[in-house]
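Hi team,

Filling in the usual template for the complex we talked about on Friday. All components are listed, including any nucleic acid strands or ligand strings, so the model treats them as one assembly.

SUBMITTER: L.P.
PURPOSE: interface mapping
COMPONENTS: four
RESIDUES: 152
SEQUENCES:
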Amino acid sequence: MGQEFGETIGTFVRDRRKAGQMTQRELGELAGVGTRFVSELERGKPSVRLSVVNKVLAVFGKSLGIVAALRQDEQP
Amino acid sequence: MGQEFGETIGTFVRDRRKAGQMTQRELGELAGVGTRFVSELERGKPSVRLSVVNKVLAVFGKSLGIVAALRQDEQP
DNA sequence: CATGAATAATCCCGTTCGGGAATAATAATG
DNA sequence: CATTATTATTCCCGAACGGGATTATTCATG
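RESULT (copied from the run log):
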């Protein structure tokens, strides 16, 4: 099976948001962040603040601050 | 077995750095970030830029941009 | 203990983030 | 197709980041 790396933060957030029938505005309000940030996050803007990303992920009971997901070689 | 949640980004980076016999300055140079950032990252400063964090993690072949690690309830 | 290395804490400062609002572009719905 | 909702883009601006250097602390090691 081809490259099944896992999703980016952007696609994860977007999928979850849609799954929850939310608009970017609603998610933003829930997370306490701006609409524009949600939009940029979903589209993969790299230079975002970790704390703000986590505010969004917290809505879905997730977080980024714990483990580093591996991308290439080298086992954990 | 108490709280075995996985490490924070800070402890992960510090452990890996020490395991590699590196000083903060050396890691910073390798990653292309400043010494102060390495120090703050290791001590768990929450508001850091995702792109810069990933520059450091890249040194260890890791990344943060892929999967959201789960912290509480709710299965993946 | 003493001494030197490593790390932490501050300071100044250019860069950029993120909020909010307005507008343009795109998607959804009838 | 027409219309509306949703999303993307742009603007202004305050707030915070991150670099680099300096100074204070803490940690190794003998």
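MY TAKE: The first strand of chain B starts at residue 62 and ends at 63. The longest helix of chain B spans residues 9-19.

Thanks, L.
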